[in-house]
Amino acid sequence: MTVVPTPVLSVRDAAVRYAGGVSALAGVSLEIHSGELLAIVGPSGSGKSTLLNIMGTLDRPTSGTVVIGGQDVTTLPDRQLSALRGRWLGFVFQQFHLSEGLTATENVTTGLLYAGVPRRQRSPLALTALERVGLAHRAGHLPHQLSGGERQRVAIARALVHEPTLVLADEPTGALDTANGRAVLELLTQLNAEGTTIALITHDRDIAAQLPRRVEIQDGRIVRDTAITAAADTPLGKGTAAAASGTGGAP
Ligand code: ADP
Fold first, then answer.
1. What is the pLDDT along the chain (251 residues), one digit of tens a residue?
2. Rounded to 5°, angle at Cα 195 from 12 and 134
3. Where are the beta strands (DSSP E) in the chain?
4. In 22-117, beta strands by DSSP E
5. Of 30, 40, 215, 241, which one has the fewest beta carbons inside 10 Å?
6. Predicted pLDDT at 236
7. 159/179 Cα distance (integer angstroms)
8. Which of ligand 1's atoms lies nearest the C-alpha of 220?
9. What is the pLDDT of residue 249?
10. 31: domain range?
């Protein structure tokens, strides 16, 4: 018997409407499984940030559900949501969002604040995370003493330090030059090979093309998901892709 694993995160028929009648997402369904590395790709204004915000439990959909680790988070109170984020999710932002007065190690330890890790264990864990991103030799540096690429690696270490089930990376190479952008993408690919599940949001089709799965979004709808296309191409998947995709199947 085949056991279908529970997705790490699933978005089911989610819609987001902003005041003034703007429909930012319209019936989006998406499943992310453990071990995946996927790009959510679309032009500016297509709904990527809105989708990221509901996946990261920073916002709630107007309708539909978001399920993380088997739990419907749409109706959870805010306090439980922060605890859930602290345990399950890691965030990487385009502009790094490091604290200027803190060293690389101290910045990384802030990723443990909501994970219930005792104070004494935080620095050693932060150092291990900095080693994973190749920055142990910069542990005592302040953000302004680091290059853009190094700053983003510190931010990635902070996102990883509590071993989240899913890392959400919002345009992580967007503020970097080509060489540093490529290095960050290689790092994310390497971390994924080591077992980290990563969803990367980008407007850049060239970056998306380098990732194993691409979910394309346009006008608040998923217009293509290569995981579903691939499933539809296998004998078992034939005929089930439309059901699996919800409204997200390719037109
Ligand atoms: P992307 O991240 O792909 O650039 P967004 O998710 O930011 O797209 O935006 C999707 C749509 O929702 C756009 O039309 C945008 O103008 C609109 N939008 C985003 N945030 C708000 C808001 N707070 N209020 C009203 N409209 C918004």
1. 667 778 999 999 999 999 998 999 999 999 999 999 999 999 999 999 999 999 999 999 999 999 998 899 999 999 899 889 988 999 999 999 999 999 999 999 999 988 888 999 999 999 999 999 999 999 999 999 999 999 999 999 999 999 999 999 999 999 999 999 999 999 999 999 999 999 999 999 999 999 999 999 999 999 999 998 777 766 654 444 443 444 433 33
2. 125
3. 9-18, 22-32, 37-41, 63-68, 71-72, 89-92, 166-170, 198-202, 213-218, 221-225
4. 22-32, 37-41, 63-68, 71-72, 89-92
5. 241
6. 56
7. 22
8. 10
9. 38
10. 9-229
Structure tokens at 175: 């503020």
Chain center to CA of 143: 23
Residues 6+ apart with CB under 8 A from 175: 94, 95, 96, 148, 152
Residue 246 lies in a domain: no
CATH number for the domain spanning 63: value is: 3.40.50.300
Quote the number of domains for the chain. 1
Is 146 inside a domain boundary?
yes
How, if at all, do strands 37-41 and 22-32 pair?
unpaired
What is the position in ligand 1's atom list of the atom closest to the CA of 23? Answer: 12
Does the pTM of the predicted model rise above 0.85? yes
Note whether residue 234 is domain-resident.
no
Cβ count within 10 A of residue 243: 8
Query: Judging by DSSP bridges, how do beta strands 221-225 and 213-218 pair with one another?
Result: antiparallel
Question: For residues 233, 236, 241 and 245, what is the CA-based torsion angle, rounded to 10 degrees?
Answer: -120
Mutation to probe ligand 1, out of 17, 44, 49, 59 (largest number of atoms < 8 A from CB) = 49
Identify whether 192 is part of a domain: yes
Tokens of 146: 């680091």
